[in-house]
Amino acid sequence: MRLGFYLPFAETLDPAANARLLALTRRLLEQPLPGVTDLVPGYVNLYVEFDARRVSQARVERWLAPFLQELPSADQGRLVEVPVRYDGEDLAWVAQATGLTPAEVVQLHQKPTYRVFATGFTPGFPFMGPLEPPLRLPRRAFPRPQVSAHQVAIAGHQTGIYPLPSPGGWHLLGTALVQVYNPRRPEPFLLEAGDRVRFVAAEGPTPPLPESLELLPEKPRHPLFRVEAPGLLSLVVDQGRRLGGRLGLAAGGALDARSAQRANALVGNPPEAPLLELTLEGPQLEVLAPGVAAFAGYGLEPLLNGEPLAAGQSFALCRGDVLAFRPTGVGVRGYLAVAGGLEVGRFWGSASTDLRGRIGRPLRAGDVLGVAQPRAVRPGFALGQPSLRVEGGETVRLLPGPQASREAQRALCAGPFTLQSGDRMGLQLAGPQVPGGEVISEATPLGAVQITPQGQPIVLLHDRGRMGGYAKPAIVHPADLPRLAQLRPGQKVRFVFAGAKLS
Questions:
Q1: Residues 271-283 pLDDT 10s
Q2: Measured distance CA(184)–CA(210) in Å, rounded
Q3: What is the dihedral of CA 488, 494, 496, 502, to 10 degrees?
Q4: CATH of domain 2-69
């Protein structure tokens, strides 16, 4: 259960304060505390995330105290030149909005030596500044649903580079002619917080989109399944990546962690063993060798040779069997574990697939999945599985967020809200308009309720961008996140505050 808190260093953009918090982050990473799962520096604060099952907030604060009393000195960081082809589709609009010519916009954009205040949003996305005052324009009122990779953009006092295709509300000035992120390189990240950057006008081809990093072995040592049909979205997951938020890496991991842990427990695996997360429509798997498996979760019913299997119970697999899944119409995600765990590679210490970060991929027909550590386990072990509410929707507890306000809390509790769409990044809800607004970009906690410019909430999930500049008036109680991950579009959710309300 991941919780967290912010350590403030300044209220407004302050390069000296940012340098101190980055120096503190480096020192903390040199002497980590077990149970601290992430340290995510923003412009003016440091977000400290911890696993409340392993360590208390009081213990984390005691660990921090001596570091805060003697803050380490800051260094200047590396100086990196980034070539840019100034051909952005917003260049003419920015010139018109600022009363400058396009050439003057380009000249002003190249003038400073920028500081990388933070990285996040997507892997390797550098938040840099400050911009020259004439270029400080607010974000677009309506973000683009897709910005192509390598775009150099501005918003407010910031400039940045989109490493990968993603939604974005910044104004596009040009194209970076180098990849700032590539998971297949020995050093995946071109820039880190604390670096200094100079933009240099140049011509040349647009860099290719980074290729996805393959995590499944080409020839597993102990083959168990051949994928005959991959299902809608079948992903290898585990408990996710830790201490990568400062670089923009998604935490990843199972969206319904309780069901994933239940599936692993049914076959005697530790909670961190890699397994499959299945969404709405499961795969069809031919069994290549004897083994033991278990399914836990919702949305699907396992079928072995066409016969339904008891829910929440481990079962034996024999060579030649066919394991398939039938949709149930209730819930979204289920988890298939095998005794010994799946054999899969790691990136940043985790086997979890990160589609946005191009780490791993969904299953494909023809894939062969293997067992990491084959071992003898008796089938038939059973665990109960809680039922899901369908009629009337879910009631979900909220805690006050970093931008908590009385008006936002009232609006959130005035629901119900309807799930419009959702994926591993977040759940987009429609309902009463909630007051929000822009904030200085900072870390986004798991389960944060972020408010769009149109006043609608998005609940941020495991593959969210790690930095954001919109208000977060509430955070979903960590114990309620697994139930939210099982909501289908059209279902309703009501919010109630479990933490102290603002009077």
A1: 999 999 999 999 9
A2: 8
A3: 110
A4: 3.30.1360.40
